[in-house]
């Protein structure tokens, strides 16, 4: 990956939203909700607080849940990613 996040930031690749409901109804692309789960593809080195380095809890490959409107969307080599702070991640799956 050409993007290296700084401090306590992570780069997330959003997982695809479901295209079919449990009842079998196909959802068109423009009606799908924004995904809230993804996979970590890059992790920053951590941050310094009160002169001490705080290590990252997340690592590359972790599947995570994050807020619907959190982070900043970027496009790298034609693929869409999301950069967000580690604190914006709600949970590991």
UniProtKB/TrEMBL annotation:
It is found in: Cytoplasm. It comes from the Bacteria. Pfam families: Cpn10. GO terms for cellular component: cytoplasm. GO terms for molecular function: ATP binding; metal ion binding; protein folding chaperone; protein-folding chaperone binding; unfolded protein binding. Keywords: Chaperone, Cytoplasm. The keyword ATP-binding does not apply. Its main location: cytoplasm. Gene3D superfamilies: GroES chaperonin. Heptamer of 7 subunits arranged in a ring. Interacts with the chaperonin GroEL. PANTHER family: 10 KDA HEAT SHOCK PROTEIN, CO-CHAPERONIN GROES. Together with the chaperonin GroEL, plays an essential role in assisting protein folding. The GroEL-GroES system forms a nano-cage that allows encapsulation of the non-native substrate proteins and provides a physical environment optimized to promote and accelerate protein folding. GroES binds to the apical surface of the GroEL ring, thereby capping the opening of the GroEL channel. Belongs to the GroES chaperonin family. This is Co-chaperonin GroES. The lineage of its organism: Bacteria, Raymondiibacteriota. The gene is groES.
């Amino acid at each position: 990956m050409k993007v290296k996040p700084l401090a306590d930031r992570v780069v997330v690749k959003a997982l695809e939203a479901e295209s079919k409901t449990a009842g079998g109804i196909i959802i068109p692309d423009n009606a799908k909700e924004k995904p809230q789960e993804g996979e970590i593809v890059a992790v920053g080195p951590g941050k310094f607080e009160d002169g001490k380095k705080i290590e990252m809890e997340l690592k590359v490959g972790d599947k995570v849940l994050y807020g619907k409107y959190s982070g900043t969307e970027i496009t790298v080599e034609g693929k869409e990613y999301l950069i967000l702070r580690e604190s914006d991640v709600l949970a590991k799956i």
